[in-house]
Amino acid sequence: MKKILVILLISAVAVFAFGCGGGEGTAEEETVKLVVGATPVPHAKILEFIKPILEEQGIELQIQEFTDYVQPNLALSDGQLDANYFQHLPYLEQFNKDNNTDLTYTVSVHFEPLGLYSQTISSLDEIEDGAKIGVPNDPTNEARALLLLQDNGLLTLKEGVELKATKLDVVENPKNIEIIEMEAAQLATSLSDMTAAVINGNYALDAGLSISEAIVSEGKESIAAQTFGNILAIRPGDEERPEIQALSDVLNSDEVRNFIEEQYAESGFVPTF
């Protein structure tokens, strides 16, 4: 009888140990890692905000920060990232065309207005003959910057160029403004070398610039606001991945809408959903 009891006790302990070990393995397997690239502000901050929400759904969100507009798409295309969040659709479409990639997207999250900033002047009237004005050098954002300057009477572009405009399309320039093309991330740090610069919203925020400080900026109801919402980019076919769907849903949630409106009101950022 003692032998039988010992055998039963050993069997019970083994079953318990095996059951506990198997349970831990299952829990680990249920946790899915999702690597998302983003520029620091506000994209990475928004992703940090939703980390706990995704964790509750069994998704471990890892954020990889970038400070330029090229590497995040290259990293996504070659599989280093599962998604990225930093760009608007016109930029992504131009990138695909220029780099023979086929990246796509799931949702639009927010819009960041471009603004004309300066350390030396505070109004358009103060822009003198021969002024130097910096603009982003990537195709879509340069066109967008030039359209902002045109909308405010500083220059005139060739008719019909719109989002394909470059400084070569300037047909009227009454103040002989020198357009300086520069990497978008460098404009804020180079502001002291120019009369003014058209700066992307995220880089302006990163440099401590408020939209209220801009001489002029894109309006919330402008065509730009409808066109340049920042999106969650992915590889084709990943739309059906449950973790990508979960990320997309959370980025378009009431929690994120409230976060953007509360945290980035001074920057003029607005949700697009």
Concise account of the structure shown:
With 273 residues, the chain is of the alpha/beta class. It is built from 9 helices and 13 strands. Strand 1, helix 2 and strand 2 form a beta-alpha-beta unit.
How does this model look, in words?
This protein has a six-stranded mixed sheet, with helices on both faces. It folds into two domains: 34-112 and 228-271, D-Maltodextrin-Binding Protein, domain 2, CATH 3.40.190.10; 115-217, 3-Layer(aba) Sandwich (D-Maltodextrin-Binding Protein, domain 2), CATH 3.40.190. The chain is of the alpha/beta class and 273 residues long. The protein is 39% helix and 22% strand.
CATH architecture of the largest domain: 3-Layer(aba) Sandwich
The gyration radius over C-alpha positions equals 25 Å
| Percentage beta strand | 15-25%
| N-end to C-end Cα span | 72 Å
User: How many separate helices?
Assistant: 9
H/E series, N to C? HEHEHEHEEEHEEEEHEHEHHE
> Structural class, from helix and strand content?
alpha/beta
**Mean pLDDT across all residues, rounded?**
90
Largest sheet: 6 strands, mixed
Number of strands: 13
Outline type: globular
Class of the largest domain in CATH?
Answer: Alpha Beta
- Uncertain segments are 1-28
CATH superfamily label of the largest domain: Periplasmic binding protein-like II
Strand order of the largest sheet: 2-1-3-12-4-13
Oligomer: single chain
Features:
22% strand, 9 helices, 273 residues, globular, 2 domains, alpha/beta, D-Maltodextrin-Binding Protein, domain 2, five-stranded mixed sheet, six-stranded mixed sheet, 39% helix, disordered N terminus
